[in-house]
Amino acid sequence: MQFIDEARLLVQGGRGGDGCVSFNREKYRPRGGPDGGRGGDGGSVIVVATEDLSTLEPYAYRHEVKAGRGRHGQGSNRAGERGEDVILEVPVGTLVYSDGELVADLEKPGDRVTVARGGAGGRGNESFATSTRQAPAFAEKGLPGERREIRLELRVLSDVGLVGLPNAGKSSLLAALSAARPKVGDYPFTTLTPRLGVVDRRAYREPFVVADIPGLIEGASEGRGLGNRFLRHVARSRLLVLLLDASGDPEGAEAVLRAELGAAGLAGKPAIVVLNKVDLLDEELREYLGQVFPDSPQISAATGEGVEELADLLKERLEELESVSGGDRKTHRTFRPTWKGVRVEAVNGGYRVSGELAERLVLKTDWENPEAVEHFQRELRNRGILAALRRAGAQPGDEVQIGDRVFDLR
């Protein structure tokens, strides 16, 4: 399976079913009595986090998703069936964006967010029966479901992120720390996708997850090399290990890593500098590096030297971070409340009314039915929309637009 960490989808909630116009022919009831049921609500599109996936590949070539529409209402007050929801399963750690805003951060299995709600079903004629209107011969139309484009972005969740220049030994260290068996080679860019490993020791109350992040190069934050694409995964690690090749130029490598992390806004991340490949050094060079990097563990992922001690150090640092944060790892969500008011604007010699309340009235009205049109006009008056138009200067005969419907004001 390919590692895909970003996908765009057009999602569409199902349309609500129409209400039913029906009369029950019973004795002593005017025209048999209205008994038209309401339409079923449309289905919704829901994104759910699961541990069964590690990539967004299922959505790489799927560009549009539609939920089921609601069934129409029927006679004898029978409501239509609700439309079927569509569940989009995504890996844990997926961010959901819409219109450039973060809608949900799905950081735990089972986290979910509705990205396109289904439209409400229309009421049947039974709902409009009153003491003065005992035989209404109209019903409401079902509303269309929400439609929007969303962007899914996967950011691998890990406790520890291994960051280093190509060939620093990150994959080898992941294999030495955990049971993961990443592809390892002595050439640059062996790691092309983030890989996870679980570090579990008997002495640990809980295991922790280590991510092998593809190698950064100088200029990665500006889009060069592979590193820029995976800086997003570094951002989700609680603790970074800056892994340096001790047999090369560790001082220069650390400067490059810190510069790229700083350019990506990640300079404040807790980090430990670790010197790898010390098995290739003589004692004199080891002592020199111990002076230059006094607090940095010296290890060899190839021979296992210092790996157990490093695992213990990482666990200790993670527990310190947990105690400081109080274990509070919150999910951040941006909610955009729907504006439900009414706005009237003078446009091209007429008037345009906007707002969810007015637009829903237009969508629910059956314009082929004279009784439904009369009901629409009553609703304009009862809900204060007619008064708002008159305050704006509208006179009988003026053209009024609500949604895609244009009519003359009476």
Automatic annotation (TrEMBL):
SUPFAM superfamilies to which the protein is assigned, alphabetical: Obg GTP-binding protein C-terminal domain (SSF102741), Obg GTP-binding protein N-terminal domain (SSF82051), P-loop containing nucleoside triphosphate hydrolases (SSF52540)
EC numbers, comma separated: 3.6.5.-
GO cellular component: cytoplasm
Location of the OBG-type G domain: 158-319
GO molecular function, one term: GTPase activity
Annotated positions binding GTP: 164-171, 189-193, 212-215, 276-279, 300-302
Keywords: Cytoplasm, GTP-binding, Hydrolase, Magnesium, Metal-binding, Nucleotide-binding
Task performed by this protein: An essential GTPase which binds GTP, GDP and possibly (p)ppGpp with moderate affinity, with high nucleotide exchange rates and a fairly low GTP hydrolysis rate. Plays a role in control of the cell cycle, stress response, ribosome biogenesis and in those bacteria that undergo differentiation, in morphogenesis control.
Family: Belongs to the TRAFAC class OBG-HflX-like GTPase superfamily. OBG GTPase family.
Full protein name: GTPase Obg
Originating organism: Rubrobacter taiwanensis
